[in-house]
Each structure stands twice: as structure tokens, then as C-alpha cells.
Design a protein that fits this description.
Blueprint: E1 2-6, H1 14-26, E2 31-35, E3 55-58, H2 63-72, E4 75-78, H3 82-91, E5 95-97, H4 111-123, H5 131-139, H6 152-171
Parallel strand pairs: 1-2, 1-4, 2-3, 4-5
Helix pairs in contact: 1-5, 3-6
InterPro entries: Glyco_trans_28_C (IPR007235)
Domain Glycosyl transferase family 28 C-terminal: 12-115
Protein name: Glycosyl transferase family 28 C-terminal domain-containing protein
Length: 176
């Protein structure tokens, strides 16, 4: 099994790091990757990990390598950043979301939680807000929910519309 954890590029995400470290220690045969963003090289993988050669931590990587990792992974655990979520849907990659939350000081508001709820309602993509729930889900990885439909055409055809809508919201209608 290959698992990719994707933290995003802006902020450290301690709860995601905790889950990555737990999974690295628990899953004997898994190859686990962690795109940890800033501070990636400060993460120490415990000696309790059974095969440290199957554990990979990096800050960022070129887009082509990152997309290859996404496609090769059995499951992707991502923060609920829209860039990642939209790409995962367009690429038809199985994933779950783990949004950053205000109550843990991970972001300035709960927009990632709001996004995760909306994506769950529209596309039936699971999201988790607590570490133990996500650890249990990954541990029972035979139950990983597969994408039911191909959303790639929908995402690709509406990408400009989404961007225009966000710009309109940010800059006001008069810009368009």
C-alpha cells in the first residue's frame, strides 16, 4: 500500500504530522510519503518504524513528480486546500480530507472545514476532523471509499468559472 500525506505549502500542520508518524509506526508493509511543507526536515521518523526505507518526508517537489505520486498512491490524505482538492478530483485520485481547524490554531478561520463539508456533500469525499478518526480509517484501508464518478470533465470545464466566481467575490462584480 502507498499512502501520500499532503500538508500544503503554507503552514506546518502538527496534527497531520502526528498521524503520519503513527501510520509510519503501525503499517508494516506500507510505503508512506509526506509532503510536509515548511519544516519537513525537522520531522524525526521514530526508530519504531519497521522499515525506514519506506518512509519519505519532503517539503515540496516539482509538479510532475507530485502528480506522479498522487496517481501512484492508494490513498491521499490532504489538508482541505482547494488547489489540492480540485486537482485530486480532476485526476480521479482516491483521497480523504483532514482540514486545518481554528480551534487548534492551525488557521485563522474554518474555511477548510467549510470546504471539506461542501466537497463531502457534492462528491461524497470523506473528511475527518480528529486524529483518532483518521488513524482508524487508514488502519482499515480495505474500506477506503473509491470515487464513484469521474468528475474530471466537470472540474476541468468549470475551473475558469470557479476562478471567475472567486475573483468576483474578492474584487466585486464591477471587475467583470
Amino acid at each position: 500500500m502507498r499512502i501520500l500525506f499532503s500538508n500544503g505549502t503554507q503552514l506546518p500542520f502538527e496534527r497531520m504530522t502526528n498521524i503520519f508518524l503513527k501510520m509510519a509506526a503501525m503499517l508494516e508493509n506500507a510505503e508512506i510519503y509526506y509532503q510536509a511543507g515548511k519544516g519537513a526536515y525537522d520531522i524525526e521518523v521514530s526508530s519504531s518504524c519497521r522499515d525506514r526505507n519506506k518512509i519519505h518526508v519532503f517539503d515540496f517537489c516539482p509538479e510532475d513528480k507530485y502528480e506522479a505520486l498522487l496517481k501512484q498512491s492508494d490513498i491521499v490524505v490532504t489538508h482541505a486546500g482547494m488547489g489540492n482538492v480540485i486537482n485530486l478530483l480532476a485526476m480521479q485520485v482516491d483521497f480523504v480530507m483532514f482540514p486545518r481547524l481554528v480551534k487548534y490554531g492551525e488557521h485563522r478561520n474554518n474555511h477548510q472545514l467549510d470546504s471539506a463539508v461542501a466537497i463531502f456533500k457534492k462528491f461524497d469525499i470523506p473528511y475527518f476532523t480528529e486524529e483518532n478518526e483518521l488513524v482508524e480509517y487508514i488502519s482499515n484501508s480495505g474500506n477506503v471509499r473509491k470515487l464513484k464518478n469521474d468528475f474530471s470533465d466537470l472540474i476541468k470545464s468549470n475551473r475558469k468559472l470557479m476562478g471567475d466566481g472567486l475573483n468576483s467575490l474578492i474584487y466585486g462584480e464591477s471587475r467583470y
